Amino acid sequence: MAAWLARLSPGDAWYNMYSRLLRTKPVGSMAPGSDDLTELGEGSAAGLAKVLTTVDLVSLGVGSCVGTGMYVVAGLVAKAMAGPGVILSFIIAAVASILSGVCYAEFGVRVPKTTGSAYTYSYVTVGEFVAFFIGWNLILEYLIGTAAGASALSSMFDSLANHSISNYMITHLGTLRGLGKGEDTYPDLLALFIALLVTVIVALGVRNSVVFNNVLNAVNLVVWVFMIIAGLFFLSASNWEGGNFLPYGWSGVMQGAATCFYAFIGFDIIATTGEEAKNPNTSIPYAITASLVTCLTAYVSVSVILTLMVPYDLIDGSAPLMEMFAVHGFLWGKYTVAVGSIAGLTVSLLGSLFPMPRVIYAMSRDGLLFRFLSHVSAFTHTPTVACVVSGCFAALLALLVSLRDLIEMMSIGTLLAYTLVSVCVLLLRYQPDEQTDTHQFISEEHQDGVKHHHDDGAAPAKDDHILIGGSDPDGSASYHAGGTEGEGDDSDFHTGHPSLLKRLLGGHFYTLRLRLGLPDASARPTPATGRVVTRCTLLFFLTSFFLWSTVIFGVEQGEGARAVFSGLTATLMAGSLAKLLITILQQPQSARKLPYMAPCVPFVPAAAILVNSYLMLKLSSLTWARFTIWCFVGLLIYGCYGVWHSTLELNAREQQAHASSYQRYDDHLDDDTFSPDDSGRPEDREEKPYQGWSAPEERGYKYQEHQ
Prior knowledge:
Layout: H1 2-7, H2 10-21, H3 54-82, H4 86-109, H5 118-125, H6 128-160, H7 164-173, H8 189-203, H9 210-231, H10 249-260, H11 268-272, H12 280-309, H13 320-327, H14 331-353, H15 355-365, H16 384-400, H17 403-429, H18 444-455, H19 462-470, H20 498-505, H21 508-516, H22 527-556, H23 561-585, H24 603-617, H25 621-645, H26 647-665, H27 680-686, H28 696-699
Helix pairs in contact: 3-9, 3-10, 3-12, 3-14, 4-10, 4-12, 4-17, 4-24, 5-6, 6-8, 6-14, 6-15, 6-16, 6-17, 6-25, 8-16, 9-12, 9-14, 10-24, 13-14, 15-16, 17-24, 17-25, 22-23, 22-24
InterPro entries: AA/rel_permease1, CAT_C
Main location: membrane
Keywords: Membrane, Transmembrane, Transmembrane helix
């Protein structure tokens, strides 16, 4: 190893590490029957029949969202952050979630016939490092979601017992300092027990039944209707009067929106069950959208009733919906809400704990996490080790950390993960589609034929497109041919539905197109335009954080000259963002047709990046400190273990060893097949999916064989 490093030039070392970070997983390894997630065993979701309808997926998404969001987050944000303005907080958080949701839906359909999450999608389409970072944050989401669900159930039982459980623990065990924002918390043994109990259930292979989930959601729906109707008899408009609607101002509303984002993050469980859907390409995006709209309706209505029944400063922070009836002496209402709380929080807890071992299993199976975590029990057919390890960590968090801090930490990790998903969608839309993902929507028996055409340096002919398209009964196989021929002016403006834009802009449509320098229908992405979009997108991502940091800490919190200077700086950065967005607009977009595509690209992903980054910066500094430690630990694991033990790395070493042996054996034949300067090397590169941000020509280095 030392001798090899000594022979390696700094340029080669940098390129080798760069290519490692951005290598992608072959799509063939994600197909059913491959050595991946589908080998979880008989009890896994991956091995189930395609029986889930769109309604079932909506039920899963709503169930995983509504529990903790409705029964805990609404009261917590109303009491400590936004007052009755929690209604606006939920609406803002819903907008951010919908923007991220449509990007998440497109990201999912780019990798068909796959059960997984943003981790698996990004590993196939973007690269290993981004996939690890997204997966690491998804683990944080599920980990804290499990702990928060257990803590919320504990608070609910404590409320039913008139707080005798918490008083007993404080009296006999004392309190803990420093875990929250100065407030004392007690070691929640009941939450610890609940988390461990659910961990054992999951580890034993009792999977989340759709029928059971639908029954609990029906109970939750009945209780929600009861709360709305019963609450109408106890409303008091004075709770919103005299400045009480926004007691903490708009800053509190935005801080509350950042925390309320936690209440909308269950839609990714829809993607993890995608292989069980009858028609995942259409069910997943529509189920995500429907579940988000349903959750928003539930949250806004409950927040209106809660803040009109109880003054915001008197809301119970642990079990607000139960106590709002107890305040008015309606105890039967309290017990009815308790039934809904048990149903909703149980679904939320299971919805967080079931996907967590799945993501850990996928990452450890790929070698990015320690491989012992991928052990599958022969008895239960579940990743037992991943279940036990993650469940114990969640139980420890539930024991020591307050519910409020858990919710804030969960929001920041999820916001960053979904922001990266939006970045990835924006990048992939503008990459050349001749080799990008054509094999992803083509059956395996046609892949060799397609590669043969590509090796000849030409795109498939029109007849080939027809043959390829005919291989898929859904018609999705011909997406890469769509738009390349016979397109009229209606396909010119690629940011939205052209006929709608023409109706809105009228005669100004073509004038706007000419002035902005937008590409016409015949333009197609090239490696050069792909690199332009990559650089602009990354700059947009970084500049958005600098912009909102300047606005929040300079304009909002500054005074006098400091505020003026910060305002001017923010204006310049906003202009830079607009310039970057226009530059992206001027590049041709891929003609690839997907079963679902996020509308108005690049505006929707850009808006998602801006909104999510602003909400992240509205969270507390203590939350950022904890999140930084979590990311640092993840980077240490990846840098010291994952990048060197990745399955792709091991396969590359094996192939390199075979190639070197073959070269030495055939050296006397004067065969230049393995020569670095041979023209065959670019052909080999053409067989791989094009990645504008990781292609060798990006770095200016020629591929060099390691002898």
